[in-house]
From TrEMBL:
<protein>
    <submittedName>
        <fullName>Integrase</fullName>
    </submittedName>
</protein>
<dbReference type="InterPro" id="IPR053876">
    <property type="entry name" value="Phage_int_M"/>
</dbReference>
<dbReference type="InterPro" id="IPR025166">
    <property type="entry name" value="Integrase_DNA_bind_dom"/>
</dbReference>
<dbReference type="InterPro" id="IPR038488">
    <property type="entry name" value="Integrase_DNA-bd_sf"/>
</dbReference>
<feature type="domain" description="Core-binding (CB)">
    <location>
        <begin position="102"/>
        <end position="183"/>
    </location>
</feature>
<dbReference type="InterPro" id="IPR013762">
    <property type="entry name" value="Integrase-like_cat_sf"/>
</dbReference>
<dbReference type="GO" id="GO:0006310">
    <property type="term" value="P:DNA recombination"/>
</dbReference>
<dbReference type="GO" id="GO:0003677">
    <property type="term" value="F:DNA binding"/>
</dbReference>
<dbReference type="Pfam" id="PF22022">
    <property type="entry name" value="Phage_int_M"/>
</dbReference>
<keyword id="KW-0229">DNA integration</keyword>
<keyword id="KW-0238">DNA-binding</keyword>
<dbReference type="InterPro" id="IPR044068">
    <property type="entry name" value="CB"/>
</dbReference>
<dbReference type="Pfam" id="PF13356">
    <property type="entry name" value="Arm-DNA-bind_3"/>
</dbReference>
<keyword id="KW-0233">DNA recombination</keyword>
<comment type="similarity">
    <text>Belongs to the 'phage' integrase family.</text>
</comment>
<dbReference type="InterPro" id="IPR010998">
    <property type="entry name" value="Integrase_recombinase_N"/>
</dbReference>
<dbReference type="InterPro" id="IPR011010">
    <property type="entry name" value="DNA_brk_join_enz"/>
</dbReference>
């Protein structure tokens, strides 16, 4: 006959000393206390369900007393008698508790921590300040599984009511990325911001043909985000070069190495690729030359500056840079690749006070001299070279956080 197990007593448990290896003190009915070499005493229940041996844990002694452990054992037996696996019940309760504790704020902070290494310090500060000011006070304490689409809409409208349209747009992006992070971890079943259109929510939002950032502080934030971009090197170079040359997106994406003279710092775009069907000359600032020389090490033996990932015989897709903007947190209603042109036109005119005809000519717009004659590709080239270097230096100043002094027209 098998040896009868003597039930445990409080005295026997208290007197149990650590040993070089784990050992068990049995109480009967599958309940035992595991004593570890470190002195820990942990309650376990061994049972069988659907023909397989299973095990439950009831916590450490003395937090879980002998009486508590025996009650847990009896509860488990009742579940087994009714055909229910007590282990699954415990797992479900644990998941339910975790879901209750997994608030929107907790998930958002985890999402932020994951992305923080790839962001600049200023971008991190901006993101966190917006989370703490605009989101957490409204839905931060709610379990993320319970946050509904209508609450996000209400949140965005509340921000709109303060006149912060751009902030509302950015908050919508943040919420979408946080829910996507939770969805990927299977903490939620859907993303309530999916297909949520800002234009359908915010009545004061004004549609623009080409969204652009033109306020210097926001430009600085965008430039820092580009420098911190963790996508492919080719796309990052395109993003860094775009504000320095402010050509049309297609002209940049299809740029060929044969068009560039890095020694004279000039980019000659042929008429066939220009909207005006006229050749165009882009003076290159020192910063642009630095980017191009680094890029040349990678793609210089091919035709295109920015080849497609699938085939170096084709330029990169026209959505590559747009996708990069989305990855950095900028949606199509805030910034586009074409927006660098509006950015340059606005700041060169209103901040740096460059002559409008110099700017328009560099934008490859139709410009005529006082006698009605069209400027050719080399018109005012010396002045435009100064302008392009001045512009690049100004952008560097913005990125560095320096106080940028508004210049006068005497600069050129």
């Amino acid at each position: 006959m098998p040896k009868r197990i003597q039930p445990l007593t409080e005295l026997k448990i208290k007197n149990a000393k650590p040993a070089p290896k784990d050992y068990k003190l049995f109480d009967g009915g599958g309940l035992f206390l595991l004593v570890t070499p470190a002195g820990g005493k942990l309650w376990h229940l061994k049972y069988r369900f659907a023909g397989k041996e299973q095990k439950l844990t009831f916590g450490p002694y003395p937090t879980t007393s002998l009486a508590d452990a025996r009650q847990h054992r009896e509860d488990a037996k009742k579940l087994l008698a009714s055909g229910v696996d007590p282990g699954e019940i415990k797992k479900a309760k644990k998941e339910e508790l975790a879901a209750e504790q997994r608030t929107f704020e907790r998930v958002a902070r985890e999402w932020f921590t994951k992305n923080e290494p790839a962001w600049s310090a200023s971008h991190c500060s901006t993101v966190m300040s917006r989370l703490e000011r605009d989101i957490f006070p409204v839905i931060g304490s709610r379990p993320i599984t319970e946050v509904k689409r209508v609450e996000i809409i209400s949140l965005l409208k509340g921000i709109e009511a303060r006149g912060k349209i751009e902030t509302a747009k950015r908050i919508k992006i943040y919420c979408g990325q946080i829910f996507r992070y939770a969805l990927n971890h299977e903490w939620v079943e859907s993303n309530p911001t999916a297909d949520l259109k800002i234009g359908d929510i915010l009545t004061k939002a004004v549609e623009k043909h080409h969204a652009a950032i033109t306020e210097p502080k926001q430009v600085a934030e965008l430039l820092r985000a580009i420098d911190a971009y963790t996508g492919t090197f080719v796309v990052k170079c395109a993003l860094q070069l775009a504000p320095l040359v402010f050509v049309r997106p297609g002209e940049l994406q299809k740029a060929e190495w044969s068009e560039f003279d890095l020694d004279t710092a000039e980019w000659n775009i042929p008429a066939s690729r220009m909207k005006s069907k006229q050749p165009h000359l882009v003076p290159l600032a020192k910063q642009a030359i630095t980017i191009l020389r680094e890029l040349h090490k990678l793609t210089g033996d091919g035709k295109y500056l920015f080849p497609s990932l699938r085939s170096h015989k084709r330029p990169m897709s026209n959505v590559a840079m747009l996708a990069a903007f989305r990855r950095m947190g900028y949606d199509k209603e805030e910034m586009t690749t074409h927006g660098f042109r509006a950015m340059a036109r606005t700041i060169l005119d209103e901040v740096l006070q460059i002559r409008p005809d110099f700017i328009e000519h560099q934008l490859a717009h139709a410009v005529r001299d006082p006698l009605g004659r069209a400027y050719n590709r080399t018109s005012h080239l010396a002045e435009r070279k100064k302008m392009m270097q001045l512009w690049a230096d100004y952008l560097d100043g913005l990125k560095a956080g320096a106080k940028v002094i508004t210049l006068t027209r005497t600069a050129l």
